[in-house]
Amino acid sequence: MNVAPLISILVPAYNAERLVEETLRSVLEQMGSRHELVVIDDGSRDGTAEVIERLLRAHPALALRLIRQDNQGLAITRNRLLDAATGDYILFVDADDVLLPGTLDALGNIVAVHQPDAIVCDFNDWYPDNPRRNRRIERAYPAGTLLRDREQFLRMFFVDRHFYACFYVLRRAIYARQPAPLYPAGRAFEDVTVTPQLLADCGSVVRLAQPIINYRQHHGTMKRNVSHKWAIDFATAARHVSQLYGRLALSDALRLHIDASIIHFYSVILKATYELAWRDGQATRASVRAMLQESLFHEVNMVLAAMEGSELMSRDPRADRIAAGQMRKILGGSKTFLLGKLISRRIKAWQRMIKA
Question: N or C: which terminus of the chain carries fewer CB neighbours within 10 A?
Answer without folding.
Answer: N
